[in-house]
Amino acid sequence: MKDRLHPSSMVFVVDDEFAVRDSVRMIVQALRISVLCYESAREFLDYVDANEIVGPACLVADVLMPECDGVRLLDLLRDREWKFPAVIISGYGGMELEQVVREFGAADYIEKPFLPGDLERAIVANLTNQIVRSPLVDSDPAAESPNSRKTA
Questions:
Q1: Strand, coil or helix: what is 71?
Q2: Average pLDDT for the chain
Q3: Is the pTM of the predicted complex or chain greater than 0.85?
């Protein structure tokens, strides 16, 4: 599945703990995907506000962070019309927290400590799903007849 990733794929990592940020960075780099890391939600939001992100992209963010937690980050990104998937990681919460982050738009929720393969699969699946979709089909389903769609 990794070979189907677009060469400009990007993963953004937001976690206040250096060790976690660095571990996630190494996992992403091992997949040969570009990665940018941020210590805080504010730092990441400043980047989002100053740059056009064309994708494919994926956010990996912690839930518990000072000043702005991962749920609030998802909410602020929704306000900015963020269109890329988010993978939320957390050492706390379980099923109840998973339900909350999914309600705020998270594509995946992974509990810490996690196996590198679990995070790899979530990232690759979310980046691959962006490539498989056709912008024309997604933007206006009535614009194309079902018979003219190509299947893989």
A1: helix
A2: 85
A3: no
Domain limits, the chain = 7-148
Burial (Cβ within 10 Å: 0-12, 13-18, ≥19) of residue 55: middle
E strand or H helix at 18: helix 18-30
What is the model's pLDDT at position 131?
Answer: 65
Nearest of 30, 26, 33, 28 to residue 7 by alpha carbon: 33
* 42-85 pLDDT tens trace: 999 999 999 999 879 999 999 999 999 999 999 999 999 999 99
User: Any residues with CB less than 8 A from the CB of 33 and at least 6 apart, and which?
Assistant: 5, 9, 10, 11, 123, 127
Residues paired with residue 35 on neighbouring β-strands, in sequence order: 11
**Which stretch of DSSP H or E encloses residue 63?**
none
- What's the CATH number for 7-148? 3.40.50.2300
